[in-house]
Structure formats: C-alpha cells, structure tokens
Amino acid sequence: MRSDGKIGWGVLGACGIAKRRTIPEGIMAASNARLAAVMDVNQAGAQEVAAKFGAKCCATERELLRAPDVQAVYVATPNYLHKKHVLAAARARRHVLCEKPLGLTSRDIFKMLAACKRANVLLGVGFMMRFNVYHRRIQEMLRSGALGTPVMARGQMTCWYPPIPGAWRQAPELGGGGTLTDMGSHVVDLMEMFFGRTKRITARTFNRVHRYPVEDTCVALLEFENGAAGVVDVSFAIPDEASEFVLEVYGSQGAVKGRHSLGQGPGGELRQCILGASKGYDAQQQAKDQGYQPMTLEPRNTYRAEIEAFSQAILEGRPAPVPGEDGLWNHIVMEAAYKSARTGKNVEPRMKS
C-alpha cells in the first residue's frame, strides 16, 4: 500500500462488467482505492482499459498477482474461472473480491474459502445490490418493526438474452446455470438480507423461448428463517422494454413497492404505505385514503459503496462486508433450487461439512 493510504486493486477480467461498471463507478470513484493493474484474455481490450484509467496492463494472471502495488484483486472473469483465479490470488496472498457465483459447485467454494483462510486474506462476493440505499432502508424498516410482522416479498428481474454463439452464460458447464444463477441469486441474497436464511425452496425452471441448454425462465417460492415467504421470478425471455425489475416487501403494518432498485443502477423508484400503530377497520380505510407515498433517498452508487466497504475492511483488519461464506450459502440455495426443479419437490438447503 502506498503512502496515500489507498488499497491498490488489480482486475482479472477487465473487459466485461469491470469495464462497464466496477472500474469507472467503483474503483476509480472510491475514496480509499486506486486501480493498479488490469488483465484480460482480450489483450487489446485490456490495453484500452489500462490506457483509459491509467493502470498497468498485465499479460498474465501471474504478472498481475505479483505486482507489488496490488493488494486486492477483483475477479470478474467467466464463472468457470472463478475457482482458478481465487485460488491463485490466495496463493499470492492478495485479498479477493469475486463476482457471484463464487464457483460452479459448493465443493469448489469450500476449497476457495479454505485457501483464503490459510493465506489470511479476505474473500468477498459481489452482491452489490446489498449496498443500494433503498434496500438498506427496507432492511432498517424491517428491523425497527415499521412494517410490522414480515409477511412476504417478491423480486422480479427479466431481460432479453437470445442465443449467442460462444456465450458462456448459456452453457451450464461454463456458467453453472441460466437465469436463476445469473439474476435469481441476487434476488435470493437480498431477500435473505431482509428475512434471514432460506429454510425451504420450491423452484420450477423453463425454456419458454430460447433453446439453449440452461433455463431461460425460473419461478421459485422460498420460506425464510423468520417465517416470511418470498417469490422470485426471473427470465431471459422478456423484452428489455417490458422489464421493470419489481421489488415488493409486505408486512402486517404496510408495504414497500418499487421498480429498478434491483439491478446495476444506484437508485430506483420505491413507494411505501405504512400504517404505523393504527389497527382495525379504521386503519384499513386510512391506508386506502393515504395510498402509497414516494420514498425519496439520495442515491449512492452500489459499486463505489461495495469497493469502499471492502477496501476499508482491509485497511481496518475487519471481515469482508459480504463474506465468502455468504456466497457459499447462496450457492447451496441455488443447488437446492435446481434439485427442486429436477424432482418437483420442496428442498431444504443444508450447509455441508
């Protein structure tokens, strides 16, 4: 770490989400981070990123991980490479923030966690939606009891993702799954931030439009530790123009409804209807008269918040803000969902030893 007190970041997989979002909005904008080096199999693309953001372009992972000014590594490579790159970062004793899913199997993720623990480095997972200001406010409302007894939630993420030759997200051996793995995992993680861990899940997967080997659509019903229920519906088969990324959270004293807080943007649109301490028929009429009111908060970029939180954890010697163990648990829930889809039965996710 240089005298400026900022964590030097290296990026493996610099030409995808890193180029679009995490580097410009996260690392470059963070008050306690700086971009030191980038690497991608697309060398021309990596050189472009390096030149644009003033970083070193490395030809190999080994070169990046050996760079003395790299203390933390952001892994944004395709899913099937996550295990390889996290283990390499651990061997090089570099802290690592890896995009989800951490690996293709829970067994692989156990190994990744163990390697980082032995190397005494942090392993974090890229669930950046936890840092959305509206999601944080909903979490506060649930904890304070403002919504009463938590009853249920719904999260919906959809987009148009047609067959593309060579697309790793459309190959199960490369991406690990389809729309459930890619988008549904974010929604499940967020609901667990609200309600606690998943106790039971029932899921159905479909290929309604696209005929690639992974599902283009999934609907899942979850029961959480606090007794609340959750519905997750995600799809690659709905036009972008029709996708509103709906989030709804209901309790015995009111509800919050929103659009576009789920996703990569910093804010969204949320409305709330809160009864407070009122009860009975009069309270129902009051809610009907009042209706939903806008919830207005100052947006905060989720990628900047994610990078700053992880960098500060390194600086202060604290655990990762979204630790690898949460990524492991999320993957176990995904495995339970796919098992449910195969068998048609309810499945209880279980942490394996």
Notes on the structure:
With 353 residues, the protein is α/β, with parallel strands linked by helices. It folds into 2 domains: 141 residues, NAD(P)-binding Rossmann-like Domain (Rossmann fold), CATH 3.40.50; 177 residues, Dihydrodipicolinate Reductase, domain 2 (2-Layer Sandwich), CATH 3.30.360.10. 37% of the residues lie in helices and 23% in strands. The chain contains 11 helices and 14 strands. The strands form 2 sheets. Strands 8-9-10-7-11-12-13-14 form an 8-stranded mixed β-sheet. α4 runs parallel beside α5 and α8 crosses α11. The longest helix is centred in the C-terminal third of the chain and has 20 residues. It is globular. The chain starts with 6 loop residues before the first strand and ends in a 10-residue tail after the last helix.
In N-to-C order, the SSE pattern is EHEHEHEHEHEHEHHEEEEEEHEHH
CATH topology of the largest domain: Dihydrodipicolinate Reductase, domain 2
Q: Roughly how many Å apart are the termini?
A: 36 Å
Corresponding CATH superfamily of the largest domain: Dihydrodipicolinate Reductase, domain 2
By helix and strand content, what is the structural category? alpha/beta
